[in-house]
Amino acid sequence: MLATGLRRGELQTLHWSDLDLAHRRVHVRAKPQYAFLPKDWEERTVPFSKELAEILKKHSRTEKCPLVFPSVLLPGRLSSPSFLHDLCKAAAKRAGLDEKEWHLHRFRDTAATRWLRAGIDVRTVQEWLGHESLATTQKYLEPSKETERQLEEMKLPF
Fold first, then answer.
1. Which domain holds residue 124?
2. Tell me: the pLDDT tens digits for 105-117?
3. Residue 1 domain-assigned?
4. What is the CATH number of the domain that holds 59?
5. Into how many domains does the chain fold?
6. Fewest CB atoms within 10 Å of the CB: 4, 8, 23, 73?
7. Which residues are identified as catalytic?
8. Rounded distance between C-alpha atoms, residue 108 and residue 110, angstroms
9. Quick check: 135 pLDDT over 80?
């Protein structure tokens, strides 16, 4: 989620066939077998880094299971919509963090903020996140402390 900005349902229903590791792309597609439709029914493609591609190449696969991150499956649907959410909370607890402050959407928020601060234009980030409105994406354009530090180091031109 941190590297792609995918939503929980998008990640939870992600199939190996949705990944193009050679071109480093993930395709967000409807999965009727899990009663999953992308938000606003908008399928999209999101690029990802070479580093993530290498990690995914090494990621173990469950035999005869098309899911990249499988949970216990029941015929035709995922067993627990909160599977990844529960993993996130457990990881926060193990790390000694306040698990109430940790939720999966936080990783999506961080992906958007990192992309924008790296100089990727807001319209591209809007498309990658699948936001209908540019205003939704623009909320991630808040000034950072790093930007303020850079301002302090700037010299006047005269």
1. 8-70+79-146
2. 888 999 999 999 8
3. no
4. 1.10.443.10
5. 1
6. 23
7. 7, 39, 105, 108, 131, 140
8. 5
9. yes
Residue 144 has pLDDT above 80, yes or no: no
Pairing of strands 25-28, 19-20: antiparallel
In angstroms, the Cα distances linking 74 to 32, 62, 71, 105, 140 are 15, 15, 9, 25, 37
Could you tell me the pLDDT band of residue 65, with boundaries at 50, 70 and 90? confident
Task: List the one residue out of 43, 24, 21 whose CA is nearest residue 32.
Answer: 43
- Residue 152 placed within a domain: no
Residue 59 lies in a domain: yes
Per the domain annotation, does 2 fall within a domain? Answer: no
* pLDDT score for 72: 56
Contacts of 109 (CB under 8 A, 6+ apart): 140
**Residue among 53, 11, 2 at smallest CA distance from 36:** 11
pTM of the model: 0.78
